[in-house]
C-alpha cells in the first residue's frame, strides 16, 4: 500500500521539531505536507529544515487547506480543545499532544466531535506504542510475576529556573501532574486494564513558579487493594522509572516513558530472586509507531490501539489528582 496520510503540523513546538516531525518522515503511512506558526518566518524556517513545500503564518490557513488530511497539535494544553475541534470540524483527523485537554468535560466534547465528523482522534501518549510494552503485558498476563501487588512510578526533571516556560502557566494547564505525572498514571491504567477507584495527591505549589504544582506525589487506588504510588516533578533531578511488583517477581523499567529507537529499551525481570534482562533488542521509535497507528486507523488497516474514551478517562483521573492536591483530600470515582 503506497497511500500516505498528509499531515499538517499546527505549531513549531520543540517536541514537534525534535520528535514527531522526524517520526512522520520515517513512518510507513505518513508524510509531512505543511507546517503553521503564528510567525511565518518561523514556519518557513521549519519547513525548509524538513523539506516541506507549504508553510503558513496562521493556524487557520493550515486548517482551511483541503489537501491536509490529518493535523498534529503540539500547542500548549489550554489550546488543545479549540484547535482539535476546529481541525475536526474541517474534516481533519487529529493527533493531539497529551494531556488531550484541561478537563474530562473538554475531552468528552472533543471525542463527541470526532464521532460526529467521522474522523480519528488520538492522544499522543507515544510510550504505549513501543513494542516492549506488548511483551511486558504478556509477562504479566502469563502469571510469571504471581499476583500483582503494586506499581511504582516516577517522572521528574528540573526546569525551575526557566520562568518563561509554558509549563509554569497554571491557566495554560501547567504543572508537574499534567506534564509528567500523567505518564505513570497512564501506565498503571494501561497495565492493569482498568480504571481506578480513588486518587490522593500531595503537591508542592510554588509561589516562585506562579502557583503551579512543581512536585507531586500520590496514590492511585484500584480494585482488590492494588495501587500505583507515584511522584512527579519539575524541580528535582531527572528520573523516570516504573516498577511492577508481583507476589513472585517484579519488572523494573529504568527508562519507562521516553525511550527512542537509539536508546536502551531494556528492562529487568526478576522472579524468585533470579533476574534476566529483556527488551535490549527492541529498537523502535514510538513516535513513528504512534503516527502510523493513526494512519492505519484512517485507512482501515486496523483499529486504533487507544480510543478517545481512554483519553477521557485519563483526563478524569488527572483533573481529580490536581483537585485532590489543591483540596488536600482523597477523591473517589465511585
UniProtKB/TrEMBL annotation:
Gene3D superfamilies: Dihydrodipicolinate Reductase, domain 2 (3.30.360.10), NAD(P)-binding Rossmann-like Domain (3.40.50.720). The keyword Oxidoreductase applies. It holds the Pfam family GFO_IDH_MocA_C3. InterPro entries: Gfo/Idh/MocA-like_OxRdtase_N, Gfo/Idh/MocA_domain, GFO_IDH_MocA-like_dom, NAD(P)-bd_dom_sf. The keyword Oxidoreductase applies. Residues 5-123 form the Gfo/Idh/MocA-like oxidoreductase N-terminal domain. One of its GO terms (molecular function) is nucleotide binding. Residues 133-251 form the GFO/IDH/MocA-like oxidoreductase domain. Keywords: Oxidoreductase. Belongs to the Gfo/Idh/MocA family. This is Gfo/Idh/MocA family oxidoreductase. It comes from Paenibacillus lentus. The lineage of its organism: Bacteria, Bacillati, Bacillota, Bacilli, Bacillales.
